Amino acid sequence: MKLLVTGGAGYVGSVCAARLVEAGHEVVVLDDLSTGHSDAVPDGCRFVEGDIAEVAGSVLSEGFDGVLHFAAKSLVGESMQEPGKYWYGNVVTSLRLLDAMREHGVPKLVFSSTAATYGEPEQVPIQETAATRPTNTYGATKLAIDNAITSYAAAHGLAAASLRYFNVAGAYGRFGERHAVETHLIPIVLQVAAGQREQVQIYGDDWPTEDGTCVRDYIHVVDLADAHLLSLQQAVSGEHRIYNLGSGTGFSVKQVIDACRKVTGHPIPALVASRRSGDPATLVASSDRARNELGWQPERADLVGIVQDAWDFAQARQEV
Ligand code: UDP
């Protein structure tokens, strides 16, 4: 297939683009490099640098079989302080992309949605039928796009899937997490092991969980990328399918830090700090729908293995 990957210079987008190229697809990456890196675009992809809202139409006019839409603003804190950046950058941009796809007859879309569309869950593990009550602007914008895709699929025959990611982690060779502003737990903890930070702050140890720290579902970025390929292959015209993607097991912040100590051999000093606003205590996915409908299976769910891949990537980056 000939595929457009928006955000293919970013973390998940670059891993997915690399897997698509390996699977024999023709891949064009479109990225404005606002947070991505041109050297993260995998070999074998054609790279177009540009703003999706402006250039999606001209790029798609070449004719494509599908779009994988990763490009987005994704910092929760920033989304609360600068909501316009998220409503325009995520929602308006995605509407332009949907219209360009329609205009040029591109039949398939896989969209990067998020567990943040659910907000504070009533039940864990979280199923796709759970209420969607996002607690931050980032999640609200992703939910708005999901809703737009549902309408476009029903009205215009688009074949679409939204994948609701839980906590993506790990790396794939030279493709991994390289955020200018790092907020995610595993890369932050590994920065301590690499000597780039003094200590890690644990955001609260008085949560209603076994060890008092927040529990999250960490999914290996390669397992996640593979779900994109499966949902693209199985997308059906006129339908918008939604899948939660996690490994189905929760790990606490303390367990993550311990896994990082084990992998790096570094003591990793940790200090308990106050809670971070907007954090739910526990987020764990039910990925039964993805398993049953897509035949997807997380193959790299072991936390130590996930951290090992992230650590190998971080160390290789230090040598660059
Ligand atoms: N966390 C932490 N210290 C940090 C960064 C994150 O204790 O320096 C916690 C955070 O409160 C959450 C978990 O680690 O409970 C995962 O946070 P992350 O930002 O990686 O992902 P999120 O679940 O917010 O999408």
UniProtKB/TrEMBL annotation:
The keyword Acetylation does not apply. Keywords: Carbohydrate metabolism, Isomerase, NAD. The keyword NAD applies. CDD domains: UDP_G4E_1_SDR_e. Its EC number is 5.1.3.2. Residues 4-246 form the NAD-dependent epimerase/dehydratase domain. GO terms for molecular function: UDP-glucose 4-epimerase activity. One of its GO terms (biological process) is galactose catabolic process via UDP-galactose, Leloir pathway. InterPro entries: Epimerase_deHydtase, NAD(P)-bd_dom_sf, UDP_G4E. It holds the Pfam family Epimerase. It catalyses: UDP-alpha-D-glucose = UDP-alpha-D-galactose. NCBIfam families: galE (TIGR01179). Homodimer. This is UDP-glucose 4-epimerase.
